[in-house]
Amino acid sequence: MANVQNGNKRPNMNMPRPSWMWIYGIIAVMILGWYFLNGGSDAPLPSDWTAVEKMVEQGEVEKIQVVNREEAQVFLKKEAIEKYRNDAEQPLYRHMPEQGIQLIFTIGSVDSFREDLKEVEQRTGTEIPVVYETQRNNWTNILVNVLPWVLIIGVWIFLMRSMARGGGGAGGGIMNVGKAKAQVFDKDNAKRVTFKDVAGLAEAKVEIMEIVDFLKKADKYRELGAKIPKGALLVGPPGTGKTLLAKAVAGEANVPFLSISGSDFVEMFVGVGASRVRDLFEQAKQKAPCIVFIDEIDAIGRARGKNAGFSGNDERENTLNQLLTEMDGFQTNTGVIVLAATNRVDILDKALTRAGRFDRQIEVGLPDVNERKEIFDVHLRPLKLDPQLDRSFLARQTPGFSGADIANVCNEAALIAARHNKKFVTREDFLAAIDRIVGGLEKPNMPMTPEERRITAIHEAGHAVVMWSLPECDPVLKVTVVPRGRSLGATWSSPDEDRIHVTDEALEEQLAGLLGGRIAEEVNYHTLGVGALSDLERATKTAYAMVTYYGMSKKIGPLSYYDSTGTRDTFTKPFSEQTAHDIDVEVRRFVEEAYARARAIIEAKNAQINAIADLLLEKETIYSEDLEQILGPAAQQPRNTAAKGGDAAKGDAADARPADGTAAASDTEQADASVAKNGAPAASGATEPDEPKRENTPEPTSEH
Fold this sequence. Notes:
Elements: H1 2-7, H2 20-37, E1 45-46, H3 49-57, E2 61-67, E3 71-76, H4 78-85, E4 103-106, H5 110-124, E5 130-133, H6 138-165, E6 183-185, H7 202-216, H8 218-223, E7 231-235, H9 242-253, E8 257-261, H10 272-286, E9 290-295, H11 315-327, E10 336-342, H12 350-353, E11 360-363, H13 369-379, H14 391-396, H15 403-419, H16 427-439, H17 450-469, E12 476-480, E13 490-493, H18 504-525, H19 533-548, H20 577-604, H21 606-619, E14 621-623, H22 624-631, H23 643-655, H24 668-675, E15 699-700
Helix pairs in contact: 7-9, 10-11, 13-15, 15-16, 17-18, 17-21, 18-19, 18-20, 19-20
């Protein structure tokens, strides 16, 4: 039998199996061909009543059939058919059917058709038989009867094919809903990210390089008895480069890298999240040594038991429990390292962040001035720049900006340069981009009366004078009355990046600076406007933080009611009603003292305020050197530790003037959002007591 098989052996052509789509296509072509070649040859010709009327007058019509009260079918006599088929002057009638219906046309209504036909019959003296019929579409009947069966059979075939694929890949079918949808990166990937592509983050790179070095040189650590960390948690504000750092780890380690988002575990089906966690770690064990990266882990790692009465056994907790078991349970995951990123570490479950699961937390914070320069160097590579552009100047103009913010600044600057048909991107484009991102879109054509512009100028001048006169306030960079975003004007200040310790005196002076605009309106116009809403909101938050968080009130004492764990019940207060009353009294006292302090400055320097307002109405935007000509030297003195950058920052404020002499305003509410993205109010410096260093985003002081 074997010889017979060998003798009759045919070459294996590996012919592809015919697809169902090809079969369906062939059937459709055959149906269309039959319609056009066969059925189309006997199809009646379209016509109208004018042509049919002439045929009726000539006695060529045998009968007319009206179908469904909307279509008339004309039957001609045999001699008329031969006449029209052989008529060279009318080639359209050459394809007239010899049998059956010759012409069809649409009637407006049965009554009008009867009247027109009766008129022709009376004029010619002939009578044309008319038949009225009601016909149903055969195709409709077929679809009604066959379509449900087709759908049922199609769904059945889809389910069977999905079950047949089984575990053929993550997300390959409906039966793979429990498979982890992780993206796999390995050394063969064409596009690799290394630590050279990550600017700044020097401390974070040192921490995470140990993990990479262990994977590369595991024997060196095993000889000393050291164990590989099971996990590392990247913590920091949004846009600081946590995910990029994880990609660099994958590129440097030369080991398989499984990336998945925390939201990929969340599904509407019960048990899917836990199943995907198990499948993820099974894939990682097969590829060990391997790195698993879970982005935005707070989607599944939120602390348990906060609302036990409402959701005691929900799907998210089951997913978290499975993750805890896989990371440090009875089963050993040798060679599997888990990296995770989050900007909400305070809400993570304590069992997840303990040693043995995430052995270390790597802080990925906002870049300082040197790191921002490195980030600018990375994002400026693809841009066509002005050769005289100073990158250090851009770094000093963007305190508090994250890596994502800097990337956005570079892109916005390029868009602005292209909008003005420039050949390269200049410094003015970058300054306009910063104003656009922080303050919002400029509105130069906003309708305002001269009186409203004057009030806005007085408001912003009040802020500038108070902040200029108090030594602990942030230095004023520029003042503008150009509407931008939701604001009519703004006073820009640049926080001191080197300031670490924020005192009560500094917060009290910042309160006075926030209230300066409202007081200037009150002193000059004896009225109170709604433009100080954002100022009052920020001042109130700062005062409450001073009393309830920082313990700066003598009456309340050195107590803090801040909940760093986020586990406190929101429906109850950690203090009595009497303490709540005392807190309100102390907050009011702080605000009123700052109000009186700012009012004394404004009343003493009201003439300078009006001079600044006049200059604002003339130039729309003024800078620190303009204020110095009117007010004299600022009260702020450069710190010893920052003396090397104090003069430069002052010079930057002067150099920040665009070429056309104008600058954009900023939207205070939008700036607040960017400054307070880590929970810190923009004016207070910090909301959280464990983070006294304020966010250093250049901010407008007021919204009017």
